[in-house]
Amino acid sequence: MKPADTAIAYIRVSTNGQGKSGLGIEAQRAAIVRFAESEGIALAAEFVEVETGKGADAIAKRPQLAAALAAAKKAGCPVVVAKLDRLARDVAFISNLMSRQIPFIVSELGVGVDSFMLHIYAALAEKERAMISARTKEALAMAKARGVTLGNPDLALAQQRSQEVRGAHADAFAQNVRPIIDQIRASGVSSLRKIAEALNARGIATARGGVWAATQVRDILLRTEPAS
Q1: Where are the chain's structural domains?
Q2: Which residues is 96 bridged to in the sheet?
Q3: pLDDT under 50: residue ranges of the chain
């Protein structure tokens, strides 16, 4: 990768309190800024996202990442992240990003890491995630064997919690998309249909991975309106 003069910063936190783990927004921002200063890179823009999806297709659920990639493509510069797992702990996801022909830099690895090594690091991160999941399942199984009651047998309560989780994800997605919609409106686009067209043109998918229509734009605006 040739040295970059400018870059787009991308910061991601998950919805499970990751801000307290050393991977919060300010920690990532500080790491990226330090890296950019040491490499003489100007940060042209910053995109911050709350994770709303996992897996190889998670990019469809990350509007800020889609916006960062679009901005990087337009500027002809890379996307920079603090750590590789801020993109994903998924090899397929990383490969998908690479296939878009938009370079990205991981500040903790430096600018000299080639695509092969990035795949290796992604594979290690994916393995780590699988091991954590396996240890969690094993611990739950042992607790169950000791007679510990896991979960809540009340189906209605379980359904309510499921609804709350879906609502939280919808709220997070709406908060991620709203700044992009505001940016589009600030450029003079006012109708919901035109805003939907602009979102589609930027390659930003809806929360379900589909294309935008006026109704979905209206829902985002209503969901993100401040409480009166």
Answers
A1: 6-117, 155-223
A2: none
A3: 1, 19-22
pTM greater than 0.85: no
3 state DSSP class of 47: strand
The size of the chain, in residues, is: 228
Long-range contacts of 112-118 (CB under 8 A, 24+ apart): 112/1, 114/1, 118/84, 118/94
State residue 21's pLDDT score: 47
Superfamily of domain 6-117: Resolvase, N-terminal catalytic domain (3.40.50.1390)
Both structure tokens of 63: 């509007």
For residue 36, give Cα distances in angstroms to 22, 78, 85, 142, 149: 20, 12, 19, 47, 50
Q: Position of tokens 């611990």? A: 139
Dihedral sign from CA coordinates of 95, 176, 220, 162 = positive
Measured CA to CA, the distance from residue 222 to residue 174 in angstroms comes to: 9
Q: What is the pLDDT of residue 9?
A: 96
Instruction: Kindly give the residue spans of alpha helices, DSSP state H, lying in the chain.
Output: 25-39, 63-75, 91-99, 115-145, 155-186, 192-201, 214-223
Q: What is the pLDDT of residues 147-168, one digit of tens each?
A: 666 555 555 666 667 677 777 7
